[in-house]
Specification:
single chain; alpha+beta; two-stranded antiparallel ribbon; 1 helix; 9% strand
Amino acid sequence: MVAFSTKTPLGIPAIDFSLPDISGKTYSLSDFSEKDVLVVVFTCNHCPYARAGWPLILNLHKKYQD
């Protein structure tokens, strides 16, 4: 059986969204219109692999938050 990637190709425009952050504030794509890059991370608190990746995500945030 051959498995094909379902990854979206680079350069595809993002669709508009409305997502709450952990404080309850809701963001949409237009809130980031002045930014060059937007990263959205979907993860969970109970998966050991997701939890192990948190330091990497936090380091990325610290490095690129501006």
